Fold each of these.
Amino acid sequence: MEEQIRKLLSGVVHPETGADIVAGGIVERIAASEAAITVTLRFPKGRDPFAVKIKNTVERLLADHFPAAKTLVVVREGGTAPRPDLKEQTTTGDITRIIAVASGKGGVGKSTVAANLAVALRDLGFRVGLLDADIYGPSQPKMFGVEGYVPDAVEVDGTDRIVPAVAQEIRLMSIGFFIRPTDALLWRGAMATNALKQMIHQTQWGALDFLVCDLPPGTGDIHLSIIGELKIDAAVIVSTPQQMAVADVVRGIEMFRNEQVKIPLAGVIENMAWFTPEELPDNRYYLFGRGGARRVAEEYGVEFLGEIPIIRSIMEGGDEGHPAAAIDPRVGERYRAIADRIVGKVMKNG
Ligand code: ADP
């Protein structure tokens, strides 16, 4: 879509220079989704007499060709803005603690745990943000019922900020706001890394006690680049009982312990530990075996943070935009105990 817009705009010519605005470098930035298009035009000369005319032309073209999208054309003047050094200029400065939620593989409930953990931390009275960095299957927008959210960009002190969604008092930024589900697999490598960097450093997080970061499943380059951008205080690994002892989980543990990474492991959470039918709330069926998480935790010297059973409200809550910890006391209690343990750990570390 951005290419399409670029092509469209290359039909607009600056009357004075005779060059089209794309080739002439006036189109500084295009950001587009089906719902919103932002184009930044930069005129090297201050008070360029053609700036307004060109802006109007661009607005009209975008409105004609993309009638369904909200469009914003920003005009800037003067030489190219120096690219902000992301390491220095970051909106993460007022975040006290960052907790990463990881898993050896997909489908074990990592995102569900991240969402419920965020809610539990909120319930403990903390200001909480949630960064959904799972490029393979961003599910936080759905889990918090903000799927259609299109982040606005605002300019603060000369830098662009992205406005997070706020759901259940949690500030949420998700890679899912920027891609369509069918795009996910194409978004590997450099493109995803750059988008994540921007999300991390330009989101208007404000002051937060905790930022929960929902990492992509597995271990790989993308993890290393996220880890490199954030000062993660603690990592949590989520697994199901039958995955617990498997190499994936061990690789996860090793990734955080790697010399170059060295992120403290808060511990492991066993998800889908047993099944309790609604009508027999006291019965526990250990469908996938029992005790695996404790064994792995012991073997690798990481804490066992707690177990979450398979409960229908957890699945339904995730589908309906209300993490179960917020509505089902049985779930809320378990998550609060886990959150308490994590808080105890990260507050101790300085
Ligand atoms: P991941 O992030 O590891 O890929 P998800 O969090 O998306 O996994 O969970 C996968 C599916 O399992 C979702 O449909 C979710 O609602 C469901 N689920 C996760 N944990 C539980 C649980 N404890 N009880 C019932 N359903 C769960």
Note: The longest strand covers residues 265-275.
Amino acid sequence: MQKLLINGKKELSGKISISGSKNATLPILAATILSDQVKLKNIPLVKDIFTMVELLKFIGLKVNVLKKKNIIIIQNLDKNIKTLAPYRLVKTMRAGVLVLGSLLTKYKKAKISLPGGCAIGTRPVNLHLFALKKLGAKIKIKNGYIIAEAKNGLKGANITFPSISVGATENAILAAFSANGKTVLRNCAIEPEIKDLIKFLNLLGGKIKTQGRKFEIYGCTKVKKNISHEVIFDRIELGTYMIAAALVGKKITFNKINSRVIQNEINILKKMGVKLKSHKSSIEILKSDNIKKINISTKPYPNFPTDLQAQLMVLMTRAHGTSKIKESIFENRFMHVPELKRMGANIEIKNKTAIIKGPSKLSGAEVMATDLRASVSLVLAGLVAENRTIINRIYHLDRGYEFLEKKLKNCKARIKRI
Ligand code: EPZ
């Protein structure tokens, strides 16, 4: 098992390049089932992407990953298509469930392993199935599989989600893509990654209009051939490194991003006293000594994202006074807390809210990663802690952060994989 070794308290300076978004790439890869030939650019070469590629190949698509150029070329020749997503491929990468909508709308049937829960929560898919049933799918659950079919094809419908779900919104959009007639979805998630999926589907020949949380989708039968799409940058990776810069930065610059997409996070960091200059496509963070306390709760976009909760908590350990962060999206997303406490953080949890008293001096320790974002919060803690931190089970990190050590080493961090 690989580990990460970090010697903390080293000031970072330089440039960090931000990769393409994992959470935009995954639904777009599911959407390539609907296409003929597609070239996807700015793809992050992280574990989850390779798992999704394996699933597409299993289904019968031709997939070519050009690693050196972060490009994936995909062809769907419509030959020997298996409308199946097996347990072994979905159990480690829950987003595999997103092929359900594509397979159903194009091939009128699908058998998808129920994605199990994960460290951060039970991760149900009831909202996905709710939308597909509204579109006319017959669904049953058997032996841990979702067995769905729509003999006469899916039919456009009016659907209002009872609660906001990124994955359910994405599955509904994919299912409605070739449904007969018009579908109106309301109370949709509007994360930038969903906008990128819609941009891709419209390139493919779809007609999808958005107005706030309301999406109108007109069934598309003829897709365009040979399209190419550059995936949006990863706003969660950017937010993670911005917090690293706020913790131990002297001067760190981020280019080729779109600061409008993370305006809310920029405002929050500024409120915490982070010295930050943002331009349309770049952000610069300078040495920030006096970090102020703040109270935040995680909410769907455009509010503060649950995927940055663990990372912000590390910054809160440096703030003067008591900060609070409420995790209102997932039921078990505080597994980084016991590890941060072992490093000297002063954190108490009271019903879904973490109370962080600062500033506390973090000291290096041997710690354990539990999920993707918790593991990167331990990296941030290791960067600011005294002495040496060793992080175990870093396969969690490799699911969503491309070249993490390289990017940090380029800014003079003392970090290596052992
Ligand atoms: C997506 O997960 C992201 N994953 C998550 O990022 C992210 O944390 C999450 O959205 C919230 O922003 C990908 O995009 C691949 P949800 P998803 O459906 O779609 C409940 C990361 O670190 N819910 O918006 O699974 C659910 O339990 C990952 O990159 C239902 O009850 O999230 C949760 O409490 C982690 N029924 C809430 O909704 C459903 O059918 C939001 O979940 C679906 C969800």
Note: Residues 23, 26, 95, 121, 123-128, 165-168, 189, 305-307, 329-330, 372-373, 400 surround EPZ (CB under 6 Å).
